[in-house]
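Quick one: C-alpha cells for this chain, please?
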Amino acid sequence: MSKPRVWYIQTASHTEKVFDPADYQRMLDAFDVTVNETDKKYTSEDVAAGIAGFDGLVTGWSNAPPVTSEVMENADKLKIIAHSAGSIRHVVSKDVIDNYLIPRDIVLFSANHAIAYNVAESSVGMLLMASHRWAQFAENFRETGTSRTPDIPGNGQFLKGSTVGIISASKVGREVIKLLSVWPLKMVLYDPYVTEEAAEEMGVEKVELNELFQRSDHVTIHAPKLEATDNLIGAEQLKLLRDGATLVNTARGNCLDHEALFAEAAAGRINVVLDVTEPEPLPTDSPFRTLKNVAVTPHVSGAGFYGYHKIGETTVDALEAAFAGKPVAGAVDYSRYEILA
C-alpha cells in the first residue's frame, strides 16, 4: 500500500526551529514526503502548479503562501492542510473554506495550541516579575549600586491571595488558567464567547470587562486581533485598576489604547509589561521608554524549545490522524473562523 504523499514546503530554518529531529524523521518515515530542498519561498502560483497528487500540504512560518481557489482547483487529492505555526487567517480565507474545504471534507490544522504553552509560561512569569518589581530592583542596582530604594516598594499583593483577571479564554488564556489553578488565588474571566457554565468548568468566574478591572489585582490579556478587540481596553477600564495593580499584554497591541495606558502608567499607580505594542516595535522616542514601571519586551513570549517542538510533534500527529480517518486534534473549527486570532 502506497504512503500518503505530503508536500512539505517549509525551509530548513523552520524545520530546525519547530521539529525535534525524531518527529521530523517520524514524518519522513510515515509518508512519501517531498521536501523543499532548495529553501525556496513558494508563491500561491507555485503551489497551484505543483499541488496535484498530494494528500497533504504543510505550511508554516517560513513558507505560507495563501491557499487560493486556483490552488484548490488543482488539489485533486488533498485531505489536510497542516499549518505548522499559529494563525491561519492569512493562509486560508473564509471563501476557500466555504467553497472547497467544507464541501470536500478537507481538514485545516493549526499548531497554535503548541505556541500557547510558551506564551502562557511567559505571561505568568511577567505577572510575577512586574508585581514583585524585580526588573525595577535590578535596574536600580545597575544604575546606582544600591540594593534598595524607597521609590520601589518591596512589599505588595503578589500572585498568592490575589484576584487575577484573564481577558479571553483563548488557547493561551486557558493555559494560563491551568498554570494558575495550583496557586491560592481567584480568577475572573472576561470572554463574551464563553458561557458561565464553561467558565465554571475552567475554575474561573465569568464577569463583564469593567468588573474584571475593578476586582483584579493583576490582569493578563489574551484576546485575538479582531476588529471587535481594537482598543478593547481604554481609559475607562484602566482607571478602575487599583493602586499597585499589574497589567500584562502578550496578545496583540491593538487590544490596548496606548495613549490611555501611558496616562495611567505615568501616574505610577500600576506596573505594566508589554510584549506586544501598537505599532510594533515602538519607535525609539516612545514615551513608554521613560517609565520605570513599564517593561517592554520584543514580542518574545511565544519563544521556547518546548512549545516550538510541540509544533512539529502536533503537526505530524495531525497528518497521521487525518490519513487514518481519525479526529484531528488542532483542526480548525470552521464555524468559529470569524473570531480566530
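The chain has 13 helices and twelve strands.
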